[in-house]
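Input structure tokens:
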């Protein structure tokens, strides 16, 4: 698992090169944005239960068939599994924000997930919608915690969405 710094070191070490201008620029921006990233992660952490609950109810309001007989989140067990999955996405998004790298998402969340979902009939489209709803709420929470530009909060949520939406080759 890599963060923005170890990822950069790995790339330059492979080539046996000192950091060049590009590397220094990306290190600068990583460290300059550090406080905001930690602040956003802290806002997510302290509101995680609320974010998941609120995103879940919004998702089921928009797509009530999910929790009706025949829906994938129907029955208490599957409903709970769905909210648990949302909580996983939120928690790993907070790690990726701090790391300044999406590597943790590839390694711990996304690997093999689409296959698992397909085999269990968990619908991808609504899951992606749930992740996007959490993104909006997480951004509101970050803004409320004093993060002025919350655009970087999009990245891990959008990354998971894109990886999820890719079609099988
Ligand atoms: C930390 C990385 C990680 C992830 C991401 C993860 C996901 C994950 N979600 C699962 C199931 C599930 N996931 C859902 C989720 C949903 N159903 C819906 O209709 C909604 C659209 C959606 C919620 C937004 C449901 C309902 C199940 C249970 C499916 C079943 O057993 O029939 C399963 C199958 C095993 C189990 O039930 O625990 C895995 C592995 N597990 C992990 O360890």
């Amino acid at each position: 698992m890599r963060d923005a710094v170890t990822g950069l070191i790995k790339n330059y070490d492979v080539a046996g090169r000192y950091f060049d201008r590009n590397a220094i620029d990306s290190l600068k921006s990583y460290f300059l944005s550090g406080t905001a990233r930690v602040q956003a992660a802290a806002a997510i952490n302290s509101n995680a239960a609320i974010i998941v609950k609120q995103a879940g109810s919004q998702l089921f309001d928009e797509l009530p068939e999910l929790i009706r007989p025949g829906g994938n989140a129907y029955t208490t067990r599957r409903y709970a599994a769905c909210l648990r999955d949302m909580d996983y996405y939120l928690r790993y998004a907070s790690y990726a924000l701090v790391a300044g790298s999406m590597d943790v998402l590839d390694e711990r969340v996304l690997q093999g997930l689409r296959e698992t979902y397909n085999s269990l009939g968990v619908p991808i489209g609504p899951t992606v919608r749930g992740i996007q709803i959490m993104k909006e709420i997480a951004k509101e929470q970050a803004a409320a915690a004093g993060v002025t530009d919350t655009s970087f909060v999009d990245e891990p949520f959008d990354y998971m969405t894109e990886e999820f939406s890719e079609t099988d080759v």
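The chain has a mean pLDDT of 96. The radius of gyration is 18 Å.
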